[in-house]
Protein backbone atom coordinates (compact mmCIF):
# COMPACT_ATOMS: atom_id res chain seq x y z
CA UNK A 1 0.00 0.00 0.00
CA UNK A 2 1.26 3.47 -0.97
CA UNK A 3 1.16 6.17 1.67
CA UNK A 4 -1.48 8.84 1.02
CA UNK A 5 0.26 12.15 0.14
CA UNK A 6 -1.14 15.17 1.95
CA UNK A 7 -0.92 18.97 1.79
CA UNK A 8 -2.02 21.56 4.35
CA UNK A 9 -3.23 25.07 3.52
CA UNK A 10 -2.97 27.42 6.52
CA UNK A 11 -0.16 26.86 9.01
CA UNK A 12 -1.53 28.95 11.90
CA UNK A 13 -2.78 27.73 15.27
CA UNK A 14 -4.69 24.64 14.11
CA UNK A 15 -2.55 23.87 11.04
CA UNK A 16 0.20 22.59 13.33
CA UNK A 17 -2.24 20.21 15.07
CA UNK A 18 -3.16 18.84 11.64
CA UNK A 19 0.53 18.40 10.83
CA UNK A 20 1.13 16.43 14.03
CA UNK A 21 -1.97 14.27 13.54
CA UNK A 22 -1.01 13.40 9.94
CA UNK A 23 2.44 12.43 11.15
CA UNK A 24 0.94 10.08 13.75
CA UNK A 25 -0.82 8.03 11.06
CA UNK A 26 1.47 5.46 9.45
CA UNK A 27 -0.14 5.44 6.02
CA UNK A 28 -0.17 9.22 5.43
CA UNK A 29 2.70 11.47 4.41
CA UNK A 30 2.71 15.25 4.73
CA UNK A 31 4.47 16.42 1.57
CA UNK A 32 3.60 20.13 1.31
CA UNK A 33 2.27 23.19 3.10
CA UNK A 34 1.11 26.64 1.95
CA UNK A 35 0.13 29.79 3.77
CA UNK A 36 -0.60 33.36 2.66
CA UNK A 37 2.03 34.26 5.25
CA UNK A 38 4.87 32.74 3.22
CA UNK A 39 7.46 33.40 5.92
CA UNK A 40 5.38 31.38 8.39
CA UNK A 41 4.93 28.53 5.90
CA UNK A 42 8.66 28.41 5.21
CA UNK A 43 9.44 28.47 8.93
CA UNK A 44 7.07 25.57 9.64
CA UNK A 45 8.30 23.59 6.63
CA UNK A 46 11.91 23.97 7.80
CA UNK A 47 11.12 23.27 11.46
CA UNK A 48 9.12 20.11 10.70
CA UNK A 49 11.14 18.91 7.67
CA UNK A 50 8.22 19.14 5.24
CA UNK A 51 9.64 18.60 1.72
CA UNK A 52 7.64 21.24 -0.19
CA UNK A 53 6.42 24.71 0.69
CA UNK A 54 4.21 26.62 -1.75
CA UNK A 55 3.55 30.36 -1.87
CA UNK A 56 -0.01 29.99 -3.20
CA UNK A 57 -3.01 27.69 -2.84
CA UNK A 58 -3.02 27.20 -6.62
CA UNK A 59 0.59 26.01 -6.67
CA UNK A 60 -0.09 23.44 -3.94
CA UNK A 61 -3.21 22.19 -5.71
CA UNK A 62 -1.31 21.85 -9.00
CA UNK A 63 1.07 19.34 -7.38
CA UNK A 64 0.02 15.96 -8.85
CA UNK A 65 1.62 14.07 -5.97
CA UNK A 66 -0.87 15.49 -3.44
CA UNK A 67 -4.00 13.36 -3.01
CA UNK A 68 -5.65 15.03 -0.02
CA UNK A 69 -5.66 18.61 1.28
CA UNK A 70 -6.52 20.05 4.70
CA UNK A 71 -8.01 23.55 4.67
CA UNK A 72 -6.90 25.25 7.91
CA UNK A 73 -7.57 28.85 6.89
CA UNK A 74 -9.99 31.29 8.59
CA UNK A 75 -13.73 30.76 8.03
CA UNK A 76 -14.17 33.30 5.20
CA UNK A 77 -11.79 31.28 3.00
CA UNK A 78 -13.40 27.86 3.45
CA UNK A 79 -15.90 28.38 0.61
CA UNK A 80 -13.38 29.56 -1.97
CA UNK A 81 -10.50 27.25 -1.07
CA UNK A 82 -12.66 24.15 -0.45
CA UNK A 83 -14.16 24.54 -3.92
CA UNK A 84 -10.69 24.81 -5.44
CA UNK A 85 -9.57 21.67 -3.61
CA UNK A 86 -12.61 19.68 -4.77
CA UNK A 87 -12.25 20.91 -8.37
CA UNK A 88 -8.56 19.96 -8.29
CA UNK A 89 -9.66 16.35 -7.66
CA UNK A 90 -8.17 16.05 -4.18
CA UNK A 91 -9.83 14.55 -1.11
CA UNK A 92 -10.60 17.30 1.37
CA UNK A 93 -10.60 17.79 5.11
CA UNK A 94 -11.96 21.23 5.93
CA UNK A 95 -11.82 23.03 9.21
CA UNK A 96 -15.11 24.03 10.82
CA UNK A 97 -17.38 25.91 10.54
CA UNK A 98 -17.77 24.68 6.98
CA UNK A 99 -18.68 28.16 5.69
CA UNK A 100 -19.84 31.63 6.67
CA UNK A 101 -23.45 30.91 5.69
CA UNK A 102 -25.74 28.13 4.43
CA UNK A 103 -25.73 29.42 0.86
CA UNK A 104 -21.98 28.74 0.73
CA UNK A 105 -22.15 25.40 2.57
CA UNK A 106 -25.12 24.25 0.45
CA UNK A 107 -23.20 25.04 -2.73
CA UNK A 108 -20.25 23.01 -1.49
CA UNK A 109 -22.54 20.02 -0.84
CA UNK A 110 -23.86 20.40 -4.42
CA UNK A 111 -20.35 20.62 -5.83
CA UNK A 112 -19.38 17.45 -3.98
CA UNK A 113 -22.33 15.63 -5.52
CA UNK A 114 -20.61 16.23 -8.89
CA UNK A 115 -17.42 14.62 -7.52
CA UNK A 116 -18.72 11.33 -6.09
CA UNK A 117 -15.25 9.85 -5.58
CA UNK A 118 -14.03 12.76 -3.47
CA UNK A 119 -13.92 11.96 0.24
CA UNK A 120 -14.81 15.11 2.18
CA UNK A 121 -14.72 15.59 5.94
CA UNK A 122 -15.15 18.47 8.36
CA UNK A 123 -12.98 18.59 11.44
CA UNK A 124 -15.49 18.17 14.25
CA UNK A 125 -12.84 16.45 16.32
CA UNK A 126 -14.58 16.19 19.72
CA UNK A 127 -16.86 13.39 18.52
CA UNK A 128 -13.74 11.26 18.11
CA UNK A 129 -12.85 10.97 21.78
CA UNK A 130 -13.02 7.25 22.55
CA UNK A 131 -15.45 7.81 25.43
CA UNK A 132 -17.70 9.95 23.21
CA UNK A 133 -17.71 7.06 20.75
CA UNK A 134 -18.50 4.78 23.70
CA UNK A 135 -21.45 7.00 24.67
CA UNK A 136 -22.71 6.83 21.10
CA UNK A 137 -22.52 3.03 21.20
CA UNK A 138 -24.32 2.90 24.57
CA UNK A 139 -27.16 4.97 23.11
CA UNK A 140 -27.32 2.78 19.99
CA UNK A 141 -27.35 -0.47 21.99
CA UNK A 142 -30.18 0.76 24.23
CA UNK A 143 -28.07 0.49 27.39
CA UNK A 144 -29.35 3.82 28.77
CA UNK A 145 -32.91 3.22 27.56
CA UNK A 146 -34.73 5.70 25.37
CA UNK A 147 -32.89 9.04 25.27
CA UNK A 148 -35.05 11.85 26.65
CA UNK A 149 -32.77 14.84 27.32
CA UNK A 150 -29.39 16.28 26.23
CA UNK A 151 -27.77 19.21 27.99
CA UNK A 152 -24.40 20.83 28.60
CA UNK A 153 -22.07 23.68 27.76
CA UNK A 154 -18.83 24.76 26.12
CA UNK A 155 -17.11 27.54 28.06
CA UNK A 156 -13.87 29.44 27.40
CA UNK A 157 -12.30 32.64 28.73
CA UNK A 158 -9.94 33.67 25.92
CA UNK A 159 -12.08 36.71 25.01
CA UNK A 160 -12.74 37.82 28.61
CA UNK A 161 -10.92 41.17 28.40
CA UNK A 162 -11.73 44.09 26.10
CA UNK A 163 -8.16 43.89 24.80
CA UNK A 164 -8.66 40.27 23.64
CA UNK A 165 -8.96 40.36 19.85
CA UNK A 166 -8.75 37.95 16.92
CA UNK A 167 -10.15 37.56 13.39
CA UNK A 168 -13.03 35.57 14.97
CA UNK A 169 -14.39 38.91 16.28
CA UNK A 170 -14.85 40.24 12.74
CA UNK A 171 -18.01 39.03 10.90
CA UNK A 172 -16.38 39.63 7.49
CA UNK A 173 -13.86 36.91 8.33
CA UNK A 174 -15.63 34.76 10.91
CA UNK A 175 -19.24 35.00 9.73
CA UNK A 176 -22.27 36.55 11.44
CA UNK A 177 -22.04 34.26 14.49
CA UNK A 178 -18.93 33.87 16.65
CA UNK A 179 -19.44 31.87 19.83
CA UNK A 180 -22.14 29.56 18.41
CA UNK A 181 -20.34 29.05 15.07
CA UNK A 182 -16.91 28.59 16.65
CA UNK A 183 -17.61 26.38 19.68
CA UNK A 184 -21.37 25.79 19.73
CA UNK A 185 -20.92 24.02 16.38
CA UNK A 186 -18.64 21.47 18.10
CA UNK A 187 -21.21 20.94 20.88
CA UNK A 188 -24.08 20.41 18.45
CA UNK A 189 -22.02 18.05 16.30
CA UNK A 190 -20.88 15.87 19.23
CA UNK A 191 -24.36 15.63 20.78
CA UNK A 192 -26.08 14.91 17.46
CA UNK A 193 -23.46 12.22 16.81
CA UNK A 194 -23.98 10.58 20.22
CA UNK A 195 -27.78 10.77 20.21
CA UNK A 196 -27.96 9.73 16.55
CA UNK A 197 -30.51 12.43 15.72
CA UNK A 198 -30.58 15.99 14.38
CA UNK A 199 -31.49 19.21 16.15
CA UNK A 200 -34.43 20.62 14.19
CA UNK A 201 -35.85 23.47 16.28
CA UNK A 202 -34.13 26.13 18.41
CA UNK A 203 -34.93 29.00 20.76
CA UNK A 204 -31.91 31.14 21.58
CA UNK A 205 -30.65 34.04 23.64
CA UNK A 206 -27.36 35.53 22.36
CA UNK A 207 -25.45 38.23 24.22
CA UNK A 208 -22.54 40.45 23.30
CA UNK A 209 -21.06 40.96 26.76
CA UNK A 210 -18.39 43.38 25.51
CA UNK A 211 -20.00 45.67 22.90
CA UNK A 212 -16.71 47.51 22.29
CA UNK A 213 -13.28 45.86 22.12
CA UNK A 214 -9.78 47.19 21.64
CA UNK A 215 -8.29 45.90 18.39
CA UNK A 216 -4.48 45.65 18.24
CA UNK A 217 -3.12 47.74 15.41
CA UNK A 218 -0.71 44.86 14.64
CA UNK A 219 -1.42 41.11 14.09
CA UNK A 220 -1.68 38.97 17.26
CA UNK A 221 -1.54 35.16 17.14
CA UNK A 222 -4.71 33.17 18.09
CA UNK A 223 -4.87 32.53 21.87
CA UNK A 224 -1.60 34.43 22.44
CA UNK A 225 -1.20 36.88 25.32
CA UNK A 226 -1.21 40.48 24.10
CA UNK A 227 1.76 42.47 25.41
CA UNK A 228 3.08 45.91 24.46
CA UNK A 229 0.40 46.38 21.83
CA UNK A 230 -1.36 49.55 20.60
CA UNK A 231 -5.16 49.45 20.16
CA UNK A 232 -8.11 51.06 18.39
CA UNK A 233 -11.76 50.78 19.56
CA UNK A 234 -14.03 48.42 17.59
CA UNK A 235 -17.81 48.00 17.92
CA UNK A 236 -18.65 44.30 18.35
CA UNK A 237 -21.71 42.68 16.74
CA UNK A 238 -21.05 38.98 17.33
CA UNK A 239 -22.02 37.10 20.49
CA UNK A 240 -19.74 36.36 23.47
CA UNK A 241 -22.38 34.09 25.00
CA UNK A 242 -25.31 32.04 23.77
CA UNK A 243 -27.98 29.87 25.38
CA UNK A 244 -30.02 27.55 23.18
CA UNK A 245 -33.11 25.44 23.91
CA UNK A 246 -33.57 22.76 21.25
CA UNK A 247 -35.65 19.84 20.01
CA UNK A 248 -34.31 16.89 18.02
CA UNK A 249 -36.02 14.93 15.26
CA UNK A 250 -36.35 11.87 17.52
CA UNK A 251 -38.25 13.80 20.22
CA UNK A 252 -35.26 14.49 22.50
CA UNK A 253 -35.33 17.92 24.18
CA UNK A 254 -32.23 19.77 25.29
CA UNK A 255 -30.36 22.92 26.15
CA UNK A 256 -26.77 24.15 25.86
CA UNK A 257 -24.90 27.35 26.55
CA UNK A 258 -21.58 28.58 25.21
CA UNK A 259 -19.32 31.40 26.34
CA UNK A 260 -15.93 32.86 25.47
CA UNK A 261 -15.92 35.17 28.52
CA UNK A 262 -16.13 32.73 31.49
CA UNK A 263 -12.99 33.32 33.57
CA UNK A 264 -11.01 30.18 34.28
CA UNK A 265 -12.62 28.06 31.59
CA UNK A 266 -10.31 26.82 28.82
CA UNK A 267 -12.06 24.07 26.90
CA UNK A 268 -14.91 23.27 29.30
CA UNK A 269 -16.91 21.23 26.82
CA UNK A 270 -19.35 18.89 28.54
CA UNK A 271 -22.66 17.19 27.96
CA UNK A 272 -25.06 14.85 29.68
CA UNK A 273 -27.39 12.46 27.89
CA UNK A 274 -30.33 11.28 29.97
CA UNK A 275 -32.16 8.06 29.10
CA UNK A 276 -35.07 6.17 30.64
CA UNK A 277 -32.66 3.69 32.31
CA UNK A 278 -29.46 5.69 32.95
CA UNK A 279 -27.62 8.96 32.30
CA UNK A 280 -24.12 9.59 30.92
CA UNK A 281 -21.87 12.63 31.40
CA UNK A 282 -18.53 13.50 29.80
CA UNK A 283 -16.29 16.57 30.03
CA UNK A 284 -13.48 17.27 27.54
CA UNK A 285 -11.22 18.61 30.32
CA UNK A 286 -11.32 15.15 31.94
CA UNK A 287 -11.60 13.33 28.63
CA UNK A 288 -10.37 9.99 29.91
CA UNK A 289 -13.32 9.59 32.27
CA UNK A 290 -17.07 9.42 31.97
CA UNK A 291 -19.88 9.17 34.49
CA UNK A 292 -22.92 6.95 34.41
CA UNK A 293 -25.88 7.83 36.61
CA UNK A 294 -28.42 5.29 37.90
CA UNK A 295 -31.38 5.67 40.21
CA UNK A 296 -31.60 2.18 41.71
CA UNK A 297 -27.91 1.29 41.94
CA UNK A 298 -24.63 3.11 42.48
CA UNK A 299 -23.40 5.64 39.96
CA UNK A 300 -20.22 4.77 38.05
CA UNK A 301 -17.12 6.87 37.43
CA UNK A 302 -15.52 5.08 34.48
CA UNK A 303 -11.83 5.38 33.59
CA UNK A 304 -11.23 4.68 29.90
CA UNK A 305 -9.90 1.15 29.47
CA UNK A 306 -9.52 -0.11 25.88
CA UNK A 307 -10.16 -3.67 27.07
CA UNK A 308 -13.66 -2.73 28.21
CA UNK A 309 -14.70 -0.48 25.33
CA UNK A 310 -17.16 -1.50 22.63
CA UNK A 311 -15.57 -2.43 19.30
CA UNK A 312 -16.32 0.90 17.59
CA UNK A 313 -14.79 2.93 20.43
CA UNK A 314 -11.83 0.60 20.92
CA UNK A 315 -10.63 1.40 17.38
CA UNK A 316 -9.95 4.95 18.62
CA UNK A 317 -8.23 4.08 21.90
CA UNK A 318 -4.71 2.70 22.02
CA UNK A 319 -3.11 3.58 25.37
CA UNK A 320 -3.71 1.29 28.36
CA UNK A 321 -5.98 2.51 31.18
CA UNK A 322 -4.39 5.13 33.43
CA UNK A 323 -2.39 6.55 30.51
CA UNK A 324 -4.60 9.54 29.71
CA UNK A 325 -5.74 10.16 26.16
CA UNK A 326 -7.04 13.65 25.45
CA UNK A 327 -7.55 16.48 22.98
CA UNK A 328 -4.62 15.65 20.67
CA UNK A 329 -5.60 12.00 20.56
CA UNK A 330 -9.22 12.72 19.62
CA UNK A 331 -7.92 15.13 16.98
CA UNK A 332 -5.67 12.41 15.59
CA UNK A 333 -8.60 9.98 15.64
CA UNK A 334 -10.68 12.26 13.43
CA UNK A 335 -7.88 12.64 10.89
CA UNK A 336 -7.26 8.88 11.09
CA UNK A 337 -10.95 8.08 10.44
CA UNK A 338 -10.81 10.26 7.30
CA UNK A 339 -7.72 8.52 5.91
CA UNK A 340 -8.87 5.02 6.92
CA UNK A 341 -12.07 5.67 4.95
CA UNK A 342 -9.97 6.60 1.90
CA UNK A 343 -7.53 3.70 2.36
CA UNK A 344 -10.40 1.20 2.70
CA UNK A 345 -11.83 2.42 -0.60
CA UNK A 346 -15.14 3.42 0.97
CA UNK A 347 -17.67 5.31 -1.15
CA UNK A 348 -18.95 8.74 -0.06
CA UNK A 349 -22.73 8.85 0.20
CA UNK A 350 -22.87 5.04 0.34
CA UNK A 351 -20.57 3.95 3.18
CA UNK A 352 -21.08 5.56 6.58
CA UNK A 353 -18.22 7.51 8.14
CA UNK A 354 -17.30 8.25 11.75
CA UNK A 355 -16.07 11.74 10.72
CA UNK A 356 -18.52 14.57 10.01
CA UNK A 357 -19.56 14.91 6.36
CA UNK A 358 -20.13 18.19 4.50
CA UNK A 359 -23.89 17.48 4.64
CA UNK A 360 -23.75 17.24 8.45
CA UNK A 361 -21.67 20.42 8.66
CA UNK A 362 -24.13 22.18 6.31
CA UNK A 363 -26.93 21.31 8.75
CA UNK A 364 -24.91 22.89 11.57
CA UNK A 365 -24.54 26.11 9.54
CA UNK A 366 -28.33 26.10 9.07
CA UNK A 367 -28.74 25.60 12.83
CA UNK A 368 -26.37 28.49 13.50
CA UNK A 369 -28.45 30.75 11.25
CA UNK A 370 -31.65 29.60 12.97
CA UNK A 371 -30.08 30.39 16.37
CA UNK A 372 -29.20 33.93 15.19
CA UNK A 373 -32.72 34.38 13.83
CA UNK A 374 -34.33 33.03 16.99
CA UNK A 375 -32.35 35.33 19.27
CA UNK A 376 -33.16 38.37 17.10
CA UNK A 377 -36.89 37.55 16.85
CA UNK A 378 -37.27 36.05 20.38
CA UNK A 379 -39.03 33.02 18.85
CA UNK A 380 -38.57 29.28 18.30
CA UNK A 381 -37.22 28.65 14.78
CA UNK A 382 -37.49 25.37 12.87
CA UNK A 383 -34.54 24.28 10.74
CA UNK A 384 -35.38 23.14 7.20
N1 LIG B 1 -11.29 21.83 15.09
C1 LIG B 1 -10.84 22.61 16.06
O1 LIG B 1 -10.82 22.24 17.23
C2 LIG B 1 -10.33 23.99 15.70
C3 LIG B 1 -9.53 24.71 16.60
C4 LIG B 1 -9.04 25.97 16.20
C5 LIG B 1 -9.37 26.47 14.95
N2 LIG B 1 -10.19 25.77 14.13
C6 LIG B 1 -10.59 26.31 12.80
O2 LIG B 1 -9.42 26.36 11.98
C7 LIG B 1 -9.46 27.50 11.12
C8 LIG B 1 -8.18 28.31 11.34
O3 LIG B 1 -8.14 28.77 12.69
P1 LIG B 1 -6.74 29.15 13.40
O4 LIG B 1 -7.06 29.39 14.82
O5 LIG B 1 -5.70 28.14 13.04
O6 LIG B 1 -6.42 30.55 12.70
P2 LIG B 1 -5.00 31.22 12.52
O7 LIG B 1 -5.27 32.65 12.23
O8 LIG B 1 -4.11 30.89 13.67
O9 LIG B 1 -4.39 30.49 11.23
C9 LIG B 1 -4.93 30.67 9.94
C10 LIG B 1 -3.79 30.64 8.94
O10 LIG B 1 -4.34 30.72 7.62
C11 LIG B 1 -3.47 31.55 6.87
N3 LIG B 1 -4.16 32.12 5.71
C12 LIG B 1 -4.97 33.20 5.70
N4 LIG B 1 -5.39 33.42 4.43
C13 LIG B 1 -4.83 32.46 3.65
C14 LIG B 1 -4.89 32.16 2.25
N5 LIG B 1 -5.61 32.90 1.40
N6 LIG B 1 -4.17 31.11 1.81
C15 LIG B 1 -3.42 30.37 2.64
N7 LIG B 1 -3.34 30.60 3.97
C16 LIG B 1 -4.04 31.64 4.47
C17 LIG B 1 -3.00 32.61 7.86
O11 LIG B 1 -1.82 33.26 7.40
C18 LIG B 1 -2.80 31.77 9.10
O12 LIG B 1 -1.49 31.28 9.20
C19 LIG B 1 -10.75 28.26 11.49
O13 LIG B 1 -11.76 27.96 10.56
C20 LIG B 1 -11.12 27.74 12.86
O14 LIG B 1 -12.52 27.73 13.11
C21 LIG B 1 -10.66 24.54 14.47
What does this structure look like?
The chain is of the alpha/beta class. It contains 11 helices and 17 strands. The chain folds into 2 domains: 4-125, 3-Layer(aba) Sandwich (Rossmann fold); 130-322 and 357-382, Dihydrodipicolinate Reductase, domain 2 (2-Layer Sandwich). It has helices at 13-24, 38-47, 57-61, 78-87, 102-113, 130-141, 171-174, 179-195, 311-314, 327-343, 358-377, and strands at 4-9, 28-34, 52-54, 68-71, 91-94, 120-122, 147-155, 199-207, 212-216, 231-235, 241-248, 253-259, 268-275, 279-283, 289-293, 300-303, 381-382. A 9-stranded mixed sheet has the order 16-15-14-13-7-12-11-8-17. Helix 1 packs across helix 10. The structure holds nicotinamide-adenine-dinucleotide. The site of nicotinamide-adenine-dinucleotide (NAD) has 25 residues, from helix 1.
Would you summarize the structure shown here?
The chain is of the alpha/beta class.
Q: Name the overall outline.
A: globular
CATH class of the largest domain: Alpha Beta
Low-pLDDT segments, ≥5 res: none
Termini gap: 43 Å
Q: Which sequence of strands runs across the widest sheet?
A: 16-15-14-13-7-12-11-8-17
Please indicate the percent range of residues in DSSP E strands (runs of 2 or more). Answer: 15-25%
Could you name the CATH homologous superfamily of the largest domain?
Dihydrodipicolinate Reductase, domain 2
Q: Taking Cα atoms only, what radius of gyration do you get, to the nearest Å? A: 21 Å
For the record, the CATH architecture of the largest domain stands as 2-Layer Sandwich
Q: Structural class, judged by helices and strands?
A: alpha/beta
> What is the overall number of helices?
11
Q: Considering DSSP H and I runs of 4 or more, what fraction of the residues is helical? A: 25-40%
Order of helices and strands: EHEHEHEHEHEHEHHEEEEEEEEEHHHE
Number of strands: 17
Distinct small-molecule ligands in the complex: nicotinamide-adenine-dinucleotide
CATH topology of the largest domain: Dihydrodipicolinate Reductase, domain 2
Total separate domains: 2
Main sheet attributes: strand count, strand direction, barrel closure? 9 strands, mixed
Amino acid sequence: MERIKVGIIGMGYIGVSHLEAIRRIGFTELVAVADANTALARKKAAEFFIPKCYDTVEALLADPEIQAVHNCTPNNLHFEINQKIIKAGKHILSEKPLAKNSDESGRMVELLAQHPKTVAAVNFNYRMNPLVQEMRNKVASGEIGKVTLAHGSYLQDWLLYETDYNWRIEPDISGPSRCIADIGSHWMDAVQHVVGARIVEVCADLVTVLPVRKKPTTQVETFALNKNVEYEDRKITTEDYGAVLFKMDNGVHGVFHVSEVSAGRGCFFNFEIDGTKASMYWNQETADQMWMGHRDKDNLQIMRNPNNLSAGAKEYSYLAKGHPEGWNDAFRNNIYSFYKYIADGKRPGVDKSDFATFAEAHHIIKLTEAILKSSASRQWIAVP
